[in-house]
Amino acid sequence: MDPAASTGAGSFGLLLFPGVEELDAIGPWEMAALWALQPSGPRECLLIGQSEAPITCAKGLVLLPQASFATAPPLDVLLVPGGLGTRTQVNNPALIGFLRQQAASCRAVLSVCTGAFLLQAAGLLSGKRATTHWASLERLRALGDVEVVEERFTRDGAIWTAAGISSGIDLTLQFIAETAGEEAAATVQLEAEYFPAAKIYGTAASRGKGAAYFRTS
């Protein structure tokens, strides 16, 4: 993977599989699709599945891939969402093989939530710093070959990983900022009207659960 590759020329691929978490995929897709409207953005955004058959997500949303593992072009950027489906997909040789094949020439590989476990199964996190959903941090640590950090998103070379679900939006905006500049990311942020409120509801986040970055914020 070459993080210095040129901008604005390639395809942004988003991997789909049964049981994928909806917002893991849709949040980054929205950011990338808005970026694609700019000259610095990707030439195309593609939803990619093992086949082009409809895919049922974790909570019932059905998405239709635009390309399969066999028909997808070489990607400039590949984003791998998470969800309960990752627990079986880590043992899917077709999916893991696709990740390895694409990663060999991608500018960057991004994961959201437990998509990190798919990257690990493909050998892409060995010796790397990475994060995942707060409820799966210890499970990722137990694999032993990943430096797990409790951050909303992190980058190690051409590998980017995000914490749970909504953090994929922040990851993608930061990727745009570092790839195409702050103003490109600012335009996407404005078009999406993504300016999160600071309000924290109730006490769930203060009961000792979750990653360090939001237990102490």
At the fourth level of CATH, the homologous superfamily is: Class I glutamine amidotransferase (GATase) domain
User: In terms of structural class, how would the helical and strand content be classed?
Assistant: alpha/beta
Q: Strand fraction band? A: 15-25%
Helical content stands at 25-40%
- CATH hierarchy, class: Alpha Beta
Spatial shape: globular
Q: Quick check: average pLDDT? A: 92
Tally of strands? 11
Task: Provide the gyration radius in Å.
Answer: 16 Å
The residue ranges in which pLDDT falls below 50 over 5 or more consecutive positions are 1-7
Q: Report the CATH topology name.
A: Rossmann fold
Helical segment tally?
Answer: 8
CATH architecture assignment name: 3-Layer(aba) Sandwich
User: How many domains make up the coordinates?
Assistant: 1
In words, what does this structure look like?
With 217 residues, the protein is α/β, with parallel strands linked by helices. It has a single domain (11-215), classed as 3-Layer(aba) Sandwich (Rossmann fold). It is 32% helix and 18% strand. The protein contains 8 helices and 11 strands. The chain has helices at 22-35, 86-89, 93-103, 115-121, 137-141, 167-180, 182-192, 212-215; strands at residues 11-15, 44-49, 55-56, 62-63, 67-68, 77-80, 108-112, 129-130, 147-148, 153-156, 159-162. The strands form 3 sheets. A 7-stranded mixed β-sheet has the order 5-2-1-6-7-11-10, sandwiched between helices. A two-stranded antiparallel ribbon has the order 3-4. Strands 8-9 form a two-stranded parallel sheet.
